[in-house]
Design goal:
Elements lengths: L2 E7 L5 H18 L17 E7 L2 E10 L4 E8 L8 H16 L5 E6 L3 H5 L4 E2 L4 E3 L2 E8 L8
Parallel strand pairs: 4-5
Antiparallel strand pairs: 1-2, 2-3, 3-4, 5-8, 6-8, 7-8
Protein backbone atom coordinates (compact mmCIF):
# COMPACT_ATOMS: atom_id res chain seq x y z
CA UNK A 1 0.00 0.00 0.00
CA UNK A 2 1.51 3.33 -1.10
CA UNK A 3 -0.30 6.09 0.76
CA UNK A 4 -0.56 9.78 0.02
CA UNK A 5 -2.20 12.19 2.46
CA UNK A 6 -4.23 15.21 1.39
CA UNK A 7 -6.11 18.17 2.89
CA UNK A 8 -8.32 20.79 1.25
CA UNK A 9 -11.49 22.83 1.70
CA UNK A 10 -14.39 20.94 0.12
CA UNK A 11 -14.74 23.43 -2.75
CA UNK A 12 -11.13 22.78 -3.77
CA UNK A 13 -11.39 18.97 -3.88
CA UNK A 14 -11.40 17.52 -7.39
CA UNK A 15 -14.95 16.30 -8.15
CA UNK A 16 -13.83 12.70 -8.80
CA UNK A 17 -11.88 12.62 -5.53
CA UNK A 18 -14.85 14.11 -3.67
CA UNK A 19 -17.08 11.43 -5.19
CA UNK A 20 -14.68 8.69 -4.00
CA UNK A 21 -14.43 10.26 -0.55
CA UNK A 22 -18.20 10.53 -0.12
CA UNK A 23 -18.66 7.03 -1.52
CA UNK A 24 -16.30 5.67 1.16
CA UNK A 25 -18.33 7.41 3.86
CA UNK A 26 -21.54 5.88 2.53
CA UNK A 27 -19.92 2.44 2.27
CA UNK A 28 -18.77 2.58 5.89
CA UNK A 29 -21.56 4.46 7.68
CA UNK A 30 -24.65 3.56 5.65
CA UNK A 31 -23.91 0.14 4.14
CA UNK A 32 -21.45 -1.52 6.55
CA UNK A 33 -22.96 -0.08 9.75
CA UNK A 34 -26.55 -0.37 8.48
CA UNK A 35 -27.41 3.26 9.29
CA UNK A 36 -29.90 4.90 7.00
CA UNK A 37 -29.03 8.53 7.60
CA UNK A 38 -28.22 11.63 5.60
CA UNK A 39 -24.42 11.69 5.35
CA UNK A 40 -24.62 14.79 3.16
CA UNK A 41 -25.70 16.95 6.09
CA UNK A 42 -24.68 20.33 4.67
CA UNK A 43 -21.67 20.67 6.96
CA UNK A 44 -19.12 19.69 4.29
CA UNK A 45 -19.80 22.97 2.48
CA UNK A 46 -19.81 25.28 5.52
CA UNK A 47 -17.17 28.01 5.48
CA UNK A 48 -13.90 26.76 6.92
CA UNK A 49 -14.67 23.05 6.59
CA UNK A 50 -11.68 21.01 5.52
CA UNK A 51 -11.49 17.42 4.36
CA UNK A 52 -8.48 15.23 4.99
CA UNK A 53 -8.03 11.93 3.20
CA UNK A 54 -5.56 9.23 2.34
CA UNK A 55 -5.26 7.63 -1.07
CA UNK A 56 -3.67 4.46 -2.36
CA UNK A 57 -3.24 5.31 -6.03
CA UNK A 58 -6.59 6.78 -7.11
CA UNK A 59 -8.55 5.06 -4.36
CA UNK A 60 -9.60 7.01 -1.24
CA UNK A 61 -8.93 4.63 1.66
CA UNK A 62 -9.59 6.88 4.66
CA UNK A 63 -11.13 10.27 5.40
CA UNK A 64 -11.79 12.79 8.18
CA UNK A 65 -13.43 16.20 8.20
CA UNK A 66 -12.72 19.27 10.34
CA UNK A 67 -15.58 21.63 11.16
CA UNK A 68 -15.91 24.94 12.99
CA UNK A 69 -18.53 24.69 15.74
CA UNK A 70 -19.54 27.81 17.68
CA UNK A 71 -17.32 27.01 20.70
CA UNK A 72 -14.84 24.42 19.41
CA UNK A 73 -13.39 22.74 16.37
CA UNK A 74 -14.97 19.39 15.49
CA UNK A 75 -13.48 16.28 13.93
CA UNK A 76 -15.96 13.93 12.33
CA UNK A 77 -16.82 11.48 9.59
CA UNK A 78 -13.74 9.38 10.35
CA UNK A 79 -14.01 6.47 7.91
CA UNK A 80 -11.54 3.88 6.65
CA UNK A 81 -11.99 1.22 3.99
CA UNK A 82 -11.86 -2.33 5.40
CA UNK A 83 -8.70 -3.17 3.41
CA UNK A 84 -6.84 -0.22 4.98
CA UNK A 85 -7.82 -0.85 8.61
CA UNK A 86 -5.24 -1.77 11.25
CA UNK A 87 -2.48 -0.25 9.11
CA UNK A 88 -2.21 3.10 10.89
CA UNK A 89 -3.94 5.05 8.13
CA UNK A 90 -6.78 6.43 10.25
CA UNK A 91 -4.35 7.11 13.09
CA UNK A 92 -2.18 9.21 10.82
CA UNK A 93 -5.21 11.10 9.54
CA UNK A 94 -6.37 11.75 13.13
CA UNK A 95 -2.90 12.98 14.06
CA UNK A 96 -2.99 15.33 11.08
CA UNK A 97 -6.55 16.48 11.88
CA UNK A 98 -5.62 17.31 15.48
CA UNK A 99 -2.51 19.11 14.25
CA UNK A 100 -4.59 21.07 11.73
CA UNK A 101 -7.12 22.07 14.38
CA UNK A 102 -4.28 23.34 16.56
CA UNK A 103 -2.94 25.36 13.61
CA UNK A 104 -6.38 26.83 12.91
CA UNK A 105 -6.97 27.90 16.53
CA UNK A 106 -4.49 26.93 19.25
CA UNK A 107 -6.94 28.16 21.92
CA UNK A 108 -9.90 26.03 20.79
CA UNK A 109 -10.91 22.70 22.23
CA UNK A 110 -11.52 19.90 19.73
CA UNK A 111 -14.68 17.81 20.04
CA UNK A 112 -16.06 14.70 18.41
CA UNK A 113 -18.81 12.14 18.77
CA UNK A 114 -17.16 8.74 19.12
CA UNK A 115 -18.73 5.37 18.66
CA UNK A 116 -18.39 4.07 22.23
CA UNK A 117 -16.20 1.10 21.33
CA UNK A 118 -13.70 3.51 19.71
CA UNK A 119 -13.31 5.80 22.76
CA UNK A 120 -9.98 4.18 23.79
CA UNK A 121 -8.66 4.72 20.26
CA UNK A 122 -9.59 8.42 20.35
CA UNK A 123 -8.05 8.69 23.83
CA UNK A 124 -4.66 8.00 22.18
CA UNK A 125 -4.99 11.45 20.60
CA UNK A 126 -5.77 13.23 23.86
CA UNK A 127 -9.58 13.01 23.77
CA UNK A 128 -11.53 12.41 26.98
CA UNK A 129 -15.18 11.52 27.49
CA UNK A 130 -17.06 14.78 28.03
CA UNK A 131 -20.68 14.00 28.78
CA UNK A 132 -23.27 11.31 28.91
CA UNK A 133 -23.48 8.42 26.43
CA UNK A 134 -26.05 8.80 23.67
CA UNK A 135 -27.49 6.66 20.92
CA UNK A 136 -27.09 7.65 17.29
CA UNK A 137 -28.58 5.39 14.63
CA UNK A 138 -28.75 2.52 17.15
CA UNK A 139 -24.99 2.80 17.84
CA UNK A 140 -23.81 3.86 21.33
CA UNK A 141 -21.75 7.07 21.18
CA UNK A 142 -19.78 9.20 23.62
CA UNK A 143 -19.11 12.93 23.39
CA UNK A 144 -15.35 13.49 23.61
CA UNK A 145 -13.20 16.58 23.97
CA UNK A 146 -9.52 17.37 23.62
CA UNK A 147 -8.75 20.47 25.64
CA UNK A 148 -6.76 23.18 23.91
CA UNK A 149 -4.18 22.90 26.70
CA UNK A 150 -3.74 19.15 26.05
CA UNK A 151 -0.42 20.08 24.44
CA UNK A 152 1.29 18.10 21.71
CA UNK A 153 0.55 14.69 23.23
CA UNK A 154 -1.08 13.35 20.05
Amino acid sequence: MTLTYHRAPTAQVDPLVLYRLLRLRVQVFVVEQHCAYEDLDGRDVEPGTELLWATDGDEVVSTVRVLHDPTALRIGRVATAPAARSRGVAGELMRRAVERCTELDPTADIVLGAQAHLAPWYARFGFEVDGEPYDEDDIPHLPMRRAADAGQSA
